[in-house]
Design goal:
The protein is built from ten helices and twelve strands. The chain has about 325 residues and is of the alpha/beta class. The protein has one domain: Rossmann fold (3-Layer(aba) Sandwich). Helix 7 links the parallel strand 5 and strand 6. The longest helix is centred in the first third of the chain and has 16 residues. About 55% of the residues are buried.
């Protein structure tokens, strides 16, 4: 990738700026302001740990007003490539959701702002970083401070963080009850050996017009006019669905439903749900027609949004990724 294109891509993706006030985003902002005014919002702490001989870091957000020894669900939210844990917290609003619905939100930090997701092309992969082990270490470290409900540990993330979520589903199914990859499909290198030790519920959101992670599979960045991203092959959205459907023993055919179009931004959302899965799991995919490489409905302001739109496509205002993922997670605790 040319240096100036890499710089533009990193600048457009790395920092979530002021949010255009869609109805969903106005609700999140209102929740934050009310929590701050009342002192009900939890605190986010930066936590340093040593793992694999490296100094690593993650953000930990524990909801306020939760006392006693009761076990809490835990969501690990992995940032995208070129992003930071702080970007991920701001972009998704998972900490606000954690305060409202009483779960712990954690935001791990990747090596060189990347994850060893199995494609073999990221900085972390090239350095041989054990990010599956790091994810386990983060959960274990959180358990030193809080009681975590081991039946309700989940992983999500966009792009590189989403492919990392796929890897955790394959290789840490004993720990993660469900995963929620966004704008990310199964890395092709992992697909042949993805035989989880336990069934894993999966919810995913993908843009059909994604210029980085091509909806129909292939090399990262091959779906756009510019070669951006770190490369490496991914499976198509439908092949990724079929892999998880087969792993979970779900029905071969999906129940297809078109979601209502609430905002005329050129996007529409189709829900594909596979039923009859083992142990109460499920596989659900949300395909966004005309949707780009964005965490919906997050938008930036002014020129930054225009740049993001040109480079990464449309951020659909017809689905809220954070709400959708948490609703799925909250309904898919691991059964005994």
């Amino acid at each position: 990738m040319k240096p100036y294109i890499r710089s533009l891509a990193a600048g457009a993706a790395a920092t979530a700026l002021l949010v255009v006030p869609t109805s969903a985003q106005r609700g999140r902002l209102r929740d934050r302001l009310q929590q701050r005014a009342s002192g009900r919002g939890g605190q986010t702490q930066s936590v340093a740990i040593t793992f694999g001989g490296l100094s690593r870091r993650y953000l930990r957000h524990v909801p306020a007003g939760v006392s006693g020894p009761g076990a809490l669900p835990l969501v690990l939210a992995f940032h995208g490539g070129s992003q930071s844990p702080e970007d991920m917290e701001r972009m998704t609003g998972f900490s606000t959701a954690a305060d409202r619905d009483h779960f712990i939100a954690a935001y791990p930090e990747g090596i060189d702002k990347s994850w060893a997701d199995g494609r073999g092309t990221t900085a972390a992969d090239k350095q041989g970083v054990d990010d599956v082990g790091f994810a386990r270490a983060v959960v274990a470290d959180i358990e030193k401070a809080r009681v975590v409900d081991r039946a309700r540990v989940f992983a999500t993330g966009p792009s590189n963080g989403g492919t990392m979520s796929h890897r955790l589903g394959c290789q840490a199914a004993d720990l993660f009850a469900a995963i929620g990859p966004v704008i990310a499909a199964m890395p092709s290198n992992l697909a042949p050996t993805c035989h989880p030790a336990a069934v894993v519920a999966v919810v995913s959101i993908q843009g059909v017009a994604d210029p980085l992670m091509p909806f129909n599979g292939g090399a990262e960045g091959s779906g756009g006019r510019r070669q951006i991203g770190t490369g490496g092959n991914i499976e198509s959205a439908r092949a990724s669905q079929d892999l998880w459907r087969a792993n979970d023993g779900c029905s071969a055919a999906a129940a297809v439903m078109n979601l209502p179009v609430r905002v005329n931004d050129g996007t529409s959302v189709t829900r594909r749900a596979y039923s009859g899965c083992r142990a109460g799991t499920g596989v659900v995919w949300y395909e966004i027609a005309a949707g780009g490489h964005r965490w919906p409905p997050q938008q930036k302001s002014g020129p930054a949004e225009a740049l993001a739109n040109r480079m990464f496509g449309v951020s659909s205002q017809n689905i809220d990724a954070t709400v959708t993922i948490w609703e799925f997670f909250s309904a898919h605790a691991r059964r005994p």
